[in-house]
Design a protein that fits this description.
55% of the residues lie in helices and 12% in strands. By secondary structure, it is of the alpha+beta class.
Amino acid sequence: MKSFFKNLEHNIEQAVKKDMKKILKETGSEKIYAVALVTDSDCITLYLAVNTYEFLEKHDKEYSIDMDLSEEDIKNLKEGSASLTQWLPDEWGYSDDDNSELAKISELLYENSESDEYDDEEYEENQKLFFETVTSAFKHLIEEKVFGEYSEKITYFISMSDDDRAEEIENNSAKLLNSPNIYETFLNRYIL
């Protein structure tokens, strides 16, 4: 099991490097503010989500049209002091696609999960190794400035879609992946 995760770390790093080159071309001159690696509750999928300030502003305007917001909330949205989608990777503008290198990693994760029947203890150990592996790979990618020239100003975190543990995972990973100032800002994030 540990050898699978050792190889997985290297594979994630290589996949993100390739997928991020494509995303950086798509974002062009837009300024990236957040990058997340997102998994599911069984840790058998992994995708890269990236957002820019420009996409956020446009998307929040479109998203808010159908919502019943107070005048203060609308004012905060216009001023940029609040957001509807800022920290929701599912709502972000850029991601790897179905044919990406990370999609191949998801196939490996799924195959690995199918190859063994886990008891509760093994399941927990598998998830622990998964998060350690993804965090370590993410750290190396940040150090290599894979996410662009302003990588030290970007907020990084790991997220889990459709799971009650998402906020805890996001907060814990943000603490490990970011400077104390960025982490504190992330902890105090405001979503309408």
